[in-house]
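OP here, attaching both records as promised.
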Amino acid sequence: MRDFFDEFEYRSANAMLRYYPQGCALDRFFLGVRVGVHHVSNSDVSPSGNDSATFGGLGFDLGYTWLLGAQERVGVSIAAGATRLFGSSSTARP
């Protein structure tokens, strides 16, 4: 018996735009918008042996960035957000 996750694939590509409301880019709080493409497939779901779908996504992020080091050349960010998926071009067959 094959494991479900052995046949499952997820891929995404996103573009993000961040706004730093305090006026100091790449430091402190930020609000972000993201747009992307998401592809999901599982070759063990449908009787034909292949089921996949592609979605567009639109979302947001809220986060905080720290600049590290004396010359602040390294940045570390933590963020949380959500993405809503739209539409589907599914290749599922009954």
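Record two, same layout:
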Amino acid sequence: MFFKKSVLFFIMVFNCSLLWANSAREIGSMEFYEITSSAGFSEKILDVRTPFEWNETGTIKNAITINAYDKKLKMKIKKLDKAKTYYIYCHSGVRSLRVQELMTKFGFKSVNVLGGMSGWLKNKLPVSKYTKNNGIFLEWN
């Protein structure tokens, strides 16, 4: 009886740890700024807002821009480097969460930025004027 309970307990703990390891990771805009501003930051930033939003408010420096509503979104995500962790943001964190779930399904490591660009701007953090030549713009025909 003791053995059965021990095995059941182990299975429950193991399953919970798997769920925790695969759960969505999220951070706020200030923590995101601190991480991306560090000298050793080598991961990727992914802006999944629309081109209108990129033009209206700019982007975070060195962000890869992929429109979350793009019909080729899945194809574009699959072309990204799986060895990197992606910090994903949109306007408020909803679209980026959707893209994060998709990236997790494809085997990517990612972090959703809560509050998105709205939180970034609220904290008066720096933005780059959006052009197809600043940072990284990914566009496939």
